[in-house]
Design goal:
536 residues, alpha+beta, Beta-Lactamase, Alpha-Beta Plaits, 3 domains, six-stranded antiparallel beta sheet, 16 helices, elongated, transmembrane
Protein backbone atom coordinates (compact mmCIF):
# COMPACT_ATOMS: atom_id res chain seq x y z
CA UNK A 1 0.00 0.00 0.00
CA UNK A 2 2.85 2.39 0.80
CA UNK A 3 4.39 1.72 -2.62
CA UNK A 4 1.04 2.37 -4.27
CA UNK A 5 0.76 5.69 -2.43
CA UNK A 6 4.29 6.67 -3.35
CA UNK A 7 3.83 5.78 -7.03
CA UNK A 8 0.64 7.43 -8.22
CA UNK A 9 -0.21 6.21 -11.72
CA UNK A 10 -2.23 8.89 -13.46
CA UNK A 11 -3.56 9.08 -17.00
CA UNK A 12 -0.63 11.18 -18.21
CA UNK A 13 1.87 8.58 -17.03
CA UNK A 14 -0.22 5.72 -18.39
CA UNK A 15 -0.64 7.23 -21.87
CA UNK A 16 3.02 8.18 -21.97
CA UNK A 17 4.06 4.67 -20.90
CA UNK A 18 1.80 2.98 -23.46
CA UNK A 19 2.98 5.35 -26.19
CA UNK A 20 6.64 4.83 -25.35
CA UNK A 21 6.18 1.08 -25.08
CA UNK A 22 4.39 0.99 -28.44
CA UNK A 23 7.06 3.17 -30.03
CA UNK A 24 9.83 1.04 -28.53
CA UNK A 25 8.22 -2.24 -29.67
CA UNK A 26 7.60 -0.79 -33.14
CA UNK A 27 11.15 0.52 -33.44
CA UNK A 28 12.57 -2.75 -32.12
CA UNK A 29 10.48 -4.74 -34.56
CA UNK A 30 11.48 -2.41 -37.40
CA UNK A 31 15.12 -2.64 -36.37
CA UNK A 32 15.16 -6.43 -36.36
CA UNK A 33 13.12 -6.58 -39.57
CA UNK A 34 15.57 -4.21 -41.23
CA UNK A 35 18.43 -6.26 -39.78
CA UNK A 36 17.18 -9.49 -41.34
CA UNK A 37 16.28 -7.83 -44.64
CA UNK A 38 19.67 -6.12 -44.82
CA UNK A 39 21.39 -9.38 -43.91
CA UNK A 40 19.56 -11.14 -46.72
CA UNK A 41 20.51 -8.35 -49.14
CA UNK A 42 24.15 -8.49 -48.09
CA UNK A 43 24.21 -12.26 -48.52
CA UNK A 44 22.63 -11.88 -51.97
CA UNK A 45 25.13 -9.15 -52.82
CA UNK A 46 28.00 -11.32 -51.57
CA UNK A 47 26.71 -14.18 -53.72
CA UNK A 48 26.68 -11.92 -56.78
CA UNK A 49 30.20 -10.67 -56.01
CA UNK A 50 31.37 -14.25 -55.53
CA UNK A 51 29.85 -15.25 -58.87
CA UNK A 52 31.43 -12.23 -60.56
CA UNK A 53 34.87 -12.97 -59.12
CA UNK A 54 34.61 -16.66 -60.02
CA UNK A 55 33.58 -15.77 -63.57
CA UNK A 56 36.44 -13.27 -63.87
CA UNK A 57 38.98 -15.81 -62.66
CA UNK A 58 37.51 -18.53 -64.90
CA UNK A 59 37.82 -16.21 -67.88
CA UNK A 60 41.45 -15.53 -66.97
CA UNK A 61 42.18 -19.25 -66.64
CA UNK A 62 40.49 -19.95 -69.97
CA UNK A 63 42.40 -17.11 -71.63
CA UNK A 64 45.65 -18.34 -70.11
CA UNK A 65 45.22 -21.84 -71.49
CA UNK A 66 43.97 -20.55 -74.85
CA UNK A 67 47.08 -18.39 -75.17
CA UNK A 68 49.22 -21.29 -73.94
CA UNK A 69 47.71 -23.57 -76.58
CA UNK A 70 48.43 -21.01 -79.29
CA UNK A 71 51.99 -20.49 -78.07
CA UNK A 72 52.72 -24.21 -77.87
CA UNK A 73 51.09 -24.83 -81.25
CA UNK A 74 53.21 -22.09 -82.82
CA UNK A 75 56.33 -23.37 -81.06
CA UNK A 76 55.62 -26.91 -82.29
CA UNK A 77 55.55 -25.71 -85.88
CA UNK A 78 58.69 -23.66 -85.27
CA UNK A 79 60.83 -26.53 -83.97
CA UNK A 80 59.57 -29.38 -86.18
CA UNK A 81 62.43 -28.87 -88.67
CA UNK A 82 65.04 -29.20 -85.90
CA UNK A 83 63.50 -32.51 -84.78
CA UNK A 84 63.42 -33.85 -88.33
CA UNK A 85 67.02 -32.82 -89.01
CA UNK A 86 68.25 -33.99 -85.61
CA UNK A 87 69.74 -30.54 -84.86
CA UNK A 88 69.33 -30.78 -81.06
CA UNK A 89 71.51 -27.72 -80.37
CA UNK A 90 69.27 -25.48 -82.48
CA UNK A 91 66.26 -27.13 -80.84
CA UNK A 92 67.64 -26.36 -77.36
CA UNK A 93 68.38 -22.77 -78.35
CA UNK A 94 64.89 -22.16 -79.75
CA UNK A 95 63.23 -23.79 -76.72
CA UNK A 96 65.16 -21.56 -74.31
CA UNK A 97 64.21 -18.49 -76.34
CA UNK A 98 60.55 -19.55 -76.42
CA UNK A 99 60.62 -20.14 -72.65
CA UNK A 100 62.16 -16.76 -71.92
CA UNK A 101 59.73 -14.91 -74.16
CA UNK A 102 56.53 -16.59 -73.02
CA UNK A 103 56.90 -16.17 -69.22
CA UNK A 104 53.97 -18.57 -69.01
CA UNK A 105 55.69 -21.69 -67.71
CA UNK A 106 58.18 -22.52 -65.00
CA UNK A 107 59.85 -25.03 -67.29
CA UNK A 108 59.49 -26.40 -70.84
CA UNK A 109 60.48 -29.67 -72.51
CA UNK A 110 60.39 -31.31 -75.94
CA UNK A 111 59.64 -35.05 -75.86
CA UNK A 112 59.99 -37.48 -78.77
CA UNK A 113 57.43 -40.07 -79.81
CA UNK A 114 59.46 -42.65 -77.88
CA UNK A 115 59.19 -40.62 -74.66
CA UNK A 116 62.74 -39.23 -74.53
CA UNK A 117 63.32 -35.61 -73.49
CA UNK A 118 65.55 -34.10 -76.19
CA UNK A 119 65.43 -30.46 -75.01
CA UNK A 120 64.60 -28.77 -71.68
CA UNK A 121 64.56 -25.24 -70.29
CA UNK A 122 66.01 -24.26 -67.95
CA UNK A 123 68.97 -26.54 -68.55
CA UNK A 124 69.74 -26.55 -64.82
CA UNK A 125 66.99 -29.14 -64.36
CA UNK A 126 69.19 -31.74 -66.15
CA UNK A 127 66.20 -33.38 -67.80
CA UNK A 128 67.68 -33.93 -71.29
CA UNK A 129 68.04 -37.59 -72.17
CA UNK A 130 65.53 -38.88 -69.63
CA UNK A 131 62.85 -41.23 -70.92
CA UNK A 132 59.36 -40.56 -69.51
CA UNK A 133 56.98 -43.34 -68.42
CA UNK A 134 54.50 -41.38 -66.31
CA UNK A 135 50.75 -41.58 -66.83
CA UNK A 136 50.74 -37.94 -67.94
CA UNK A 137 53.29 -38.74 -70.66
CA UNK A 138 51.35 -41.80 -71.79
CA UNK A 139 48.15 -39.75 -71.99
CA UNK A 140 49.85 -37.06 -74.09
CA UNK A 141 51.15 -39.74 -76.49
CA UNK A 142 47.80 -41.48 -76.66
CA UNK A 143 45.55 -38.44 -77.09
CA UNK A 144 47.87 -36.50 -79.46
CA UNK A 145 46.05 -33.25 -78.71
CA UNK A 146 46.34 -30.23 -76.42
CA UNK A 147 46.22 -31.64 -72.87
CA UNK A 148 46.15 -30.10 -69.39
CA UNK A 149 47.27 -32.73 -66.90
CA UNK A 150 46.12 -33.35 -63.36
CA UNK A 151 48.54 -32.18 -60.64
CA UNK A 152 51.48 -34.54 -60.04
CA UNK A 153 55.04 -34.53 -58.72
CA UNK A 154 57.62 -34.10 -61.49
CA UNK A 155 61.02 -35.74 -61.87
CA UNK A 156 62.52 -32.63 -60.27
CA UNK A 157 60.32 -33.05 -57.22
CA UNK A 158 58.03 -30.10 -58.00
CA UNK A 159 54.26 -30.30 -57.67
CA UNK A 160 53.14 -29.27 -61.17
CA UNK A 161 50.52 -29.17 -63.87
CA UNK A 162 51.84 -30.07 -67.31
CA UNK A 163 50.42 -28.52 -70.49
CA UNK A 164 51.38 -30.19 -73.78
CA UNK A 165 50.82 -29.76 -77.52
CA UNK A 166 51.58 -32.55 -80.06
CA UNK A 167 54.19 -32.07 -82.81
CA UNK A 168 53.43 -33.30 -86.33
CA UNK A 169 55.50 -33.10 -89.51
CA UNK A 170 54.18 -31.89 -92.85
CA UNK A 171 52.87 -35.37 -93.62
CA UNK A 172 50.93 -35.55 -90.37
CA UNK A 173 53.30 -37.99 -88.71
CA UNK A 174 53.47 -37.75 -84.91
CA UNK A 175 56.95 -36.70 -83.75
CA UNK A 176 56.28 -36.10 -80.04
CA UNK A 177 55.12 -33.10 -78.07
CA UNK A 178 56.22 -29.80 -76.56
CA UNK A 179 55.00 -28.91 -73.10
CA UNK A 180 55.34 -26.52 -70.21
CA UNK A 181 54.92 -26.98 -66.48
CA UNK A 182 53.22 -24.78 -63.89
CA UNK A 183 54.68 -25.10 -60.40
CA UNK A 184 51.73 -25.10 -58.01
CA UNK A 185 53.88 -24.44 -54.95
CA UNK A 186 55.53 -21.43 -56.60
CA UNK A 187 54.12 -18.07 -57.66
CA UNK A 188 54.15 -17.79 -61.41
CA UNK A 189 51.83 -16.05 -63.91
CA UNK A 190 48.52 -17.75 -63.06
CA UNK A 191 49.20 -17.97 -59.33
CA UNK A 192 50.40 -14.38 -59.16
CA UNK A 193 47.26 -13.18 -60.93
CA UNK A 194 45.06 -15.08 -58.50
CA UNK A 195 46.82 -13.65 -55.48
CA UNK A 196 46.57 -10.14 -56.95
CA UNK A 197 42.84 -10.46 -57.59
CA UNK A 198 41.97 -12.24 -54.36
CA UNK A 199 44.32 -10.78 -51.80
CA UNK A 200 41.37 -9.54 -49.71
CA UNK A 201 41.17 -11.49 -46.44
CA UNK A 202 37.37 -11.55 -46.62
CA UNK A 203 37.49 -13.81 -49.71
CA UNK A 204 38.42 -17.45 -49.83
CA UNK A 205 39.25 -18.84 -53.29
CA UNK A 206 39.67 -22.45 -54.37
CA UNK A 207 40.71 -23.85 -57.75
CA UNK A 208 39.92 -27.57 -57.85
CA UNK A 209 40.66 -30.03 -60.64
CA UNK A 210 38.36 -32.80 -61.89
CA UNK A 211 39.60 -35.25 -59.23
CA UNK A 212 38.87 -32.85 -56.36
CA UNK A 213 42.50 -31.84 -55.78
CA UNK A 214 43.11 -28.24 -54.72
CA UNK A 215 45.25 -26.56 -57.38
CA UNK A 216 45.17 -23.06 -55.93
CA UNK A 217 44.45 -21.61 -52.49
CA UNK A 218 45.87 -18.63 -50.64
CA UNK A 219 47.08 -21.11 -48.00
CA UNK A 220 49.91 -22.92 -49.84
CA UNK A 221 49.71 -25.87 -47.43
CA UNK A 222 46.31 -26.81 -48.87
CA UNK A 223 47.59 -27.04 -52.47
CA UNK A 224 47.71 -30.68 -53.51
CA UNK A 225 45.25 -31.81 -50.83
CA UNK A 226 41.73 -33.05 -51.47
CA UNK A 227 38.85 -30.61 -51.11
CA UNK A 228 37.28 -30.96 -47.66
CA UNK A 229 33.68 -31.23 -48.90
CA UNK A 230 33.48 -34.00 -51.52
CA UNK A 231 29.68 -34.11 -51.17
CA UNK A 232 29.55 -30.54 -52.51
CA UNK A 233 31.66 -31.53 -55.51
CA UNK A 234 29.33 -34.43 -56.20
CA UNK A 235 26.32 -32.13 -56.04
CA UNK A 236 27.73 -29.79 -58.71
CA UNK A 237 28.54 -32.53 -61.20
CA UNK A 238 27.05 -31.66 -64.56
CA UNK A 239 26.62 -27.99 -63.61
CA UNK A 240 28.69 -25.19 -65.10
CA UNK A 241 28.03 -22.66 -62.34
CA UNK A 242 25.93 -22.09 -59.26
CA UNK A 243 25.65 -20.78 -55.69
CA UNK A 244 25.59 -22.60 -52.36
CA UNK A 245 26.38 -22.21 -48.66
CA UNK A 246 29.74 -23.61 -47.54
CA UNK A 247 31.50 -23.51 -44.16
CA UNK A 248 34.29 -20.95 -44.12
CA UNK A 249 37.61 -21.35 -42.32
CA UNK A 250 35.82 -20.71 -39.00
CA UNK A 251 33.27 -23.43 -39.94
CA UNK A 252 30.50 -20.83 -40.27
CA UNK A 253 28.18 -21.37 -43.28
CA UNK A 254 28.94 -18.58 -45.75
CA UNK A 255 27.78 -17.80 -49.31
CA UNK A 256 29.93 -19.24 -52.08
CA UNK A 257 29.75 -19.44 -55.88
CA UNK A 258 31.41 -21.82 -58.31
CA UNK A 259 32.06 -21.89 -62.04
CA UNK A 260 33.61 -24.58 -64.22
CA UNK A 261 36.34 -23.55 -66.67
CA UNK A 262 35.97 -24.61 -70.31
CA UNK A 263 39.50 -25.63 -71.23
CA UNK A 264 40.59 -27.44 -68.10
CA UNK A 265 37.27 -28.41 -66.49
CA UNK A 266 38.50 -26.98 -63.19
CA UNK A 267 36.02 -25.77 -60.58
CA UNK A 268 36.69 -22.28 -59.24
CA UNK A 269 35.02 -21.51 -55.90
CA UNK A 270 34.90 -18.02 -54.44
CA UNK A 271 33.61 -17.58 -50.92
CA UNK A 272 33.08 -14.43 -48.89
CA UNK A 273 33.41 -15.14 -45.18
CA UNK A 274 30.41 -14.63 -42.96
CA UNK A 275 32.55 -12.51 -40.66
CA UNK A 276 32.98 -9.84 -43.37
CA UNK A 277 29.22 -9.87 -44.09
CA UNK A 278 28.45 -9.57 -40.39
CA UNK A 279 30.93 -6.72 -40.02
CA UNK A 280 29.35 -4.84 -42.93
CA UNK A 281 25.90 -5.52 -41.49
CA UNK A 282 26.91 -4.20 -38.06
CA UNK A 283 28.29 -1.04 -39.66
CA UNK A 284 25.00 -0.50 -41.49
CA UNK A 285 22.97 -1.02 -38.31
CA UNK A 286 25.20 1.38 -36.35
CA UNK A 287 24.70 4.01 -39.06
CA UNK A 288 20.95 3.41 -38.93
CA UNK A 289 20.97 4.01 -35.18
CA UNK A 290 23.10 7.13 -35.53
CA UNK A 291 20.89 8.60 -38.22
CA UNK A 292 17.65 7.56 -36.51
CA UNK A 293 18.50 8.81 -33.01
CA UNK A 294 17.84 12.56 -33.65
CA UNK A 295 14.48 11.79 -35.22
CA UNK A 296 13.69 9.47 -32.32
CA UNK A 297 14.44 12.22 -29.80
CA UNK A 298 12.22 14.70 -31.68
CA UNK A 299 9.46 12.08 -31.88
CA UNK A 300 9.77 11.44 -28.15
CA UNK A 301 9.45 15.15 -27.36
CA UNK A 302 6.43 15.53 -29.62
CA UNK A 303 4.88 12.41 -28.11
CA UNK A 304 5.34 13.79 -24.59
CA UNK A 305 3.74 17.13 -25.52
CA UNK A 306 0.84 15.45 -27.30
CA UNK A 307 0.31 13.08 -24.37
CA UNK A 308 0.10 16.03 -21.99
CA UNK A 309 -2.56 17.77 -24.07
CA UNK A 310 -4.51 14.51 -24.49
CA UNK A 311 -4.50 13.84 -20.75
CA UNK A 312 -5.21 17.42 -19.61
CA UNK A 313 -8.98 17.56 -20.32
CA UNK A 314 -9.44 14.02 -19.03
CA UNK A 315 -7.63 14.95 -15.83
CA UNK A 316 -9.87 18.01 -15.43
CA UNK A 317 -13.00 15.90 -15.96
CA UNK A 318 -11.73 13.33 -13.46
CA UNK A 319 -11.28 16.04 -10.82
CA UNK A 320 -14.77 17.37 -11.53
CA UNK A 321 -16.25 13.86 -11.31
CA UNK A 322 -14.67 13.37 -7.87
CA UNK A 323 -16.48 16.46 -6.54
CA UNK A 324 -19.86 16.23 -8.29
CA UNK A 325 -21.69 17.26 -5.08
CA UNK A 326 -20.18 20.76 -5.13
CA UNK A 327 -22.37 23.59 -6.52
CA UNK A 328 -19.90 24.93 -9.09
CA UNK A 329 -18.94 21.60 -10.63
CA UNK A 330 -21.18 22.07 -13.72
CA UNK A 331 -19.39 25.29 -14.65
CA UNK A 332 -16.05 23.53 -14.18
CA UNK A 333 -17.11 20.73 -16.52
CA UNK A 334 -18.36 23.23 -19.10
CA UNK A 335 -15.05 25.11 -18.98
CA UNK A 336 -13.08 22.00 -19.96
CA UNK A 337 -11.65 22.31 -23.47
CA UNK A 338 -13.01 19.10 -25.02
CA UNK A 339 -10.97 19.28 -28.21
CA UNK A 340 -11.50 15.69 -29.34
CA UNK A 341 -14.56 13.50 -29.69
CA UNK A 342 -14.10 11.16 -26.74
CA UNK A 343 -13.64 14.01 -24.26
CA UNK A 344 -16.67 15.78 -25.71
CA UNK A 345 -18.77 12.65 -25.23
CA UNK A 346 -17.46 12.12 -21.69
CA UNK A 347 -18.11 15.75 -20.87
CA UNK A 348 -21.71 15.44 -22.09
CA UNK A 349 -22.24 12.26 -20.07
CA UNK A 350 -20.92 13.89 -16.91
CA UNK A 351 -23.28 16.82 -17.41
CA UNK A 352 -26.21 14.37 -17.62
CA UNK A 353 -25.31 13.04 -14.19
CA UNK A 354 -24.01 9.89 -12.60
CA UNK A 355 -27.46 8.38 -12.17
CA UNK A 356 -28.30 8.66 -15.86
CA UNK A 357 -24.87 7.32 -16.73
CA UNK A 358 -25.38 4.26 -14.53
CA UNK A 359 -28.85 3.84 -15.97
CA UNK A 360 -27.50 3.90 -19.52
CA UNK A 361 -24.74 1.47 -18.63
CA UNK A 362 -27.37 -0.85 -17.19
CA UNK A 363 -29.30 -0.73 -20.45
CA UNK A 364 -26.31 -2.07 -22.31
CA UNK A 365 -26.57 -5.39 -20.54
CA UNK A 366 -27.34 -7.92 -23.25
CA UNK A 367 -28.36 -10.56 -20.75
CA UNK A 368 -31.12 -8.37 -19.28
CA UNK A 369 -32.62 -7.30 -22.60
CA UNK A 370 -32.18 -10.19 -25.05
CA UNK A 371 -33.94 -13.53 -25.35
CA UNK A 372 -31.15 -16.15 -25.58
CA UNK A 373 -33.01 -18.63 -27.80
CA UNK A 374 -34.23 -16.27 -30.52
CA UNK A 375 -31.71 -13.45 -30.21
CA UNK A 376 -34.62 -10.97 -30.08
CA UNK A 377 -35.44 -8.42 -27.43
CA UNK A 378 -37.22 -9.77 -24.38
CA UNK A 379 -40.14 -7.99 -22.70
CA UNK A 380 -37.86 -5.78 -20.59
CA UNK A 381 -35.77 -4.80 -23.58
CA UNK A 382 -38.90 -4.05 -25.56
CA UNK A 383 -40.34 -1.79 -22.87
CA UNK A 384 -37.12 0.18 -22.39
CA UNK A 385 -36.57 0.54 -26.14
CA UNK A 386 -40.14 1.78 -26.48
CA UNK A 387 -39.48 4.42 -23.83
CA UNK A 388 -36.65 5.81 -25.96
CA UNK A 389 -38.85 6.29 -29.05
CA UNK A 390 -42.11 7.19 -27.31
CA UNK A 391 -41.80 10.93 -27.87
CA UNK A 392 -40.61 10.65 -31.49
CA UNK A 393 -43.68 9.02 -33.11
CA UNK A 394 -47.41 9.73 -33.08
CA UNK A 395 -48.31 6.24 -34.22
CA UNK A 396 -46.86 2.83 -33.49
CA UNK A 397 -48.28 -0.40 -34.91
CA UNK A 398 -48.27 -3.57 -32.82
CA UNK A 399 -48.17 -7.10 -34.25
CA UNK A 400 -48.73 -10.07 -31.93
CA UNK A 401 -47.70 -13.51 -33.25
CA UNK A 402 -48.31 -17.00 -31.88
CA UNK A 403 -47.22 -20.35 -33.36
CA UNK A 404 -50.21 -22.57 -34.05
CA UNK A 405 -50.29 -25.95 -32.28
CA UNK A 406 -46.84 -25.40 -30.80
CA UNK A 407 -47.58 -27.80 -27.93
CA UNK A 408 -48.29 -30.53 -30.48
CA UNK A 409 -44.89 -29.87 -32.08
CA UNK A 410 -43.15 -30.21 -28.71
CA UNK A 411 -45.12 -33.33 -27.77
CA UNK A 412 -44.67 -35.00 -31.18
CA UNK A 413 -41.12 -34.04 -32.08
CA UNK A 414 -39.54 -33.04 -28.79
CA UNK A 415 -38.47 -29.76 -27.25
CA UNK A 416 -35.29 -29.62 -29.34
CA UNK A 417 -37.38 -29.49 -32.49
CA UNK A 418 -39.59 -26.88 -30.84
CA UNK A 419 -36.56 -24.74 -30.06
CA UNK A 420 -35.36 -25.13 -33.65
CA UNK A 421 -38.76 -23.98 -34.95
CA UNK A 422 -38.57 -20.89 -32.71
CA UNK A 423 -35.05 -20.09 -33.96
CA UNK A 424 -36.00 -20.45 -37.63
CA UNK A 425 -39.18 -18.43 -37.17
CA UNK A 426 -37.19 -15.73 -35.36
CA UNK A 427 -34.83 -15.48 -38.33
CA UNK A 428 -37.74 -15.23 -40.75
CA UNK A 429 -39.45 -12.56 -38.64
CA UNK A 430 -36.30 -10.42 -38.55
CA UNK A 431 -35.96 -10.65 -42.34
CA UNK A 432 -39.50 -9.30 -42.80
CA UNK A 433 -39.08 -6.15 -40.69
CA UNK A 434 -37.01 -2.99 -40.67
CA UNK A 435 -33.97 -2.47 -38.48
CA UNK A 436 -35.88 0.29 -36.69
CA UNK A 437 -38.71 -2.08 -35.76
CA UNK A 438 -38.63 -3.61 -32.28
CA UNK A 439 -38.77 -7.39 -32.71
CA UNK A 440 -39.39 -9.24 -29.43
CA UNK A 441 -40.08 -12.70 -28.04
CA UNK A 442 -42.24 -12.24 -24.99
CA UNK A 443 -42.48 -15.88 -23.94
CA UNK A 444 -42.89 -19.42 -25.21
CA UNK A 445 -44.16 -19.35 -28.79
CA UNK A 446 -45.36 -15.73 -28.57
CA UNK A 447 -43.72 -12.83 -30.41
CA UNK A 448 -44.42 -9.11 -30.46
CA UNK A 449 -43.30 -6.55 -33.04
CA UNK A 450 -43.55 -2.78 -32.61
CA UNK A 451 -43.39 -0.73 -35.82
CA UNK A 452 -42.70 2.94 -34.97
CA UNK A 453 -44.20 5.32 -37.56
CA UNK A 454 -46.09 2.57 -39.44
CA UNK A 455 -49.88 2.84 -39.78
CA UNK A 456 -52.18 -0.13 -39.40
CA UNK A 457 -52.54 -0.68 -43.16
CA UNK A 458 -48.77 -1.10 -43.62
CA UNK A 459 -48.58 -3.31 -40.54
CA UNK A 460 -51.41 -5.51 -41.86
CA UNK A 461 -49.70 -5.97 -45.22
CA UNK A 462 -46.43 -6.88 -43.52
CA UNK A 463 -48.18 -9.28 -41.13
CA UNK A 464 -50.02 -11.01 -43.99
CA UNK A 465 -46.78 -11.33 -45.97
CA UNK A 466 -45.05 -12.89 -42.96
CA UNK A 467 -47.94 -15.31 -42.35
CA UNK A 468 -47.88 -16.41 -45.98
CA UNK A 469 -44.07 -16.87 -45.97
CA UNK A 470 -44.24 -18.99 -42.83
CA UNK A 471 -47.03 -21.13 -44.23
CA UNK A 472 -44.95 -21.86 -47.33
CA UNK A 473 -41.71 -22.63 -45.47
CA UNK A 474 -40.67 -26.12 -44.42
CA UNK A 475 -39.52 -25.86 -40.81
CA UNK A 476 -39.21 -29.57 -40.09
CA UNK A 477 -37.59 -31.52 -42.96
CA UNK A 478 -38.90 -35.07 -42.98
CA UNK A 479 -42.16 -33.94 -41.38
CA UNK A 480 -43.81 -32.27 -44.36
CA UNK A 481 -47.26 -33.37 -43.21
CA UNK A 482 -46.99 -31.16 -40.13
CA UNK A 483 -46.65 -27.62 -41.52
CA UNK A 484 -45.89 -24.71 -39.16
CA UNK A 485 -48.36 -21.80 -39.27
CA UNK A 486 -48.88 -18.66 -37.22
CA UNK A 487 -51.82 -16.60 -36.05
CA UNK A 488 -51.36 -12.83 -36.04
CA UNK A 489 -53.09 -9.93 -34.32
CA UNK A 490 -52.52 -6.34 -35.49
CA UNK A 491 -53.34 -2.97 -33.93
CA UNK A 492 -51.95 0.57 -33.75
CA UNK A 493 -51.84 3.29 -31.08
CA UNK A 494 -50.68 6.80 -30.36
CA UNK A 495 -47.98 6.66 -27.65
CA UNK A 496 -48.93 10.18 -26.53
CA UNK A 497 -52.56 9.20 -25.89
CA UNK A 498 -52.54 5.48 -25.10
CA UNK A 499 -50.20 3.13 -23.28
CA UNK A 500 -48.23 0.24 -24.71
CA UNK A 501 -49.97 -2.17 -22.33
CA UNK A 502 -53.37 -1.28 -23.78
CA UNK A 503 -52.04 -1.71 -27.32
CA UNK A 504 -50.52 -5.11 -26.47
CA UNK A 505 -53.79 -6.29 -24.94
CA UNK A 506 -55.66 -5.16 -28.05
CA UNK A 507 -53.20 -7.01 -30.31
CA UNK A 508 -53.55 -10.11 -28.09
CA UNK A 509 -57.34 -9.93 -28.42
CA UNK A 510 -56.96 -9.83 -32.19
CA UNK A 511 -54.56 -12.78 -31.96
CA UNK A 512 -57.03 -14.87 -29.98
CA UNK A 513 -59.75 -14.05 -32.51
CA UNK A 514 -57.44 -15.34 -35.24
CA UNK A 515 -56.91 -18.58 -33.31
CA UNK A 516 -60.60 -19.00 -32.59
CA UNK A 517 -61.38 -18.38 -36.25
CA UNK A 518 -59.32 -21.34 -37.43
CA UNK A 519 -55.71 -20.14 -37.00
CA UNK A 520 -53.20 -19.30 -39.80
CA UNK A 521 -54.70 -15.86 -40.38
CA UNK A 522 -54.27 -12.16 -39.58
CA UNK A 523 -56.90 -10.26 -37.56
CA UNK A 524 -56.90 -6.47 -37.13
CA UNK A 525 -58.42 -4.70 -34.11
CA UNK A 526 -58.49 -0.93 -33.51
CA UNK A 527 -58.17 1.01 -30.28
CA UNK A 528 -61.28 3.13 -29.77
CA UNK A 529 -59.23 6.15 -28.68
CA UNK A 530 -56.90 5.89 -31.72
CA UNK A 531 -59.38 5.28 -34.55
CA UNK A 532 -58.02 8.41 -36.25
CA UNK A 533 -54.73 6.60 -36.88
CA UNK A 534 -56.28 4.41 -39.55
CA UNK A 535 -57.55 7.38 -41.53
CA UNK A 536 -55.37 8.74 -44.34
Amino acid sequence: MRIKKLVQINLLHLILFISLASMFVTLLNSYFTFYHVQKKLLVEQATKVNASYSAKLAMTVNNFFSVSEEQLSYSARLIVSHIQSGNLRALQTDLQRIHQLSHAFNSMVVVTATGQIIAASPMSLNLTGITLTSSQHLMAQKEKRFIISSPYTSLSGNYIIFVSQPIFDDMGNYLGYIGGSLYLNNRRILNEFMNTQFSNDSFNTYVIDKEGTIIYHHDITQIGTKFSDPAMLSSVNGQDKGDFMMPDEQRIPSPASFIRTQKSGWIIITQQSFHSIEEALNNVMVNVLKQGTPLGIVTLMMLSILTYYIAKPLRQLAKSASSMEQPGVINKIRSVNAWYLEVEQLKRVLLMGTVLLHKRIGRLSSEAHTDPLSGMLNRRGMLESMEEVRGEYKKVSVIAIDIDHFKVINDSFGHDMGDEVIRKLSQQIRKNFRKTDLVCRIGGEEFLILLPGADIHVATVIAERLRNNVANTIYMPGSQHHQVTISVGVTTFNPQKSTLDVAIKTADNALYKAKNSGRNQVVVEYLSDDISLVQH
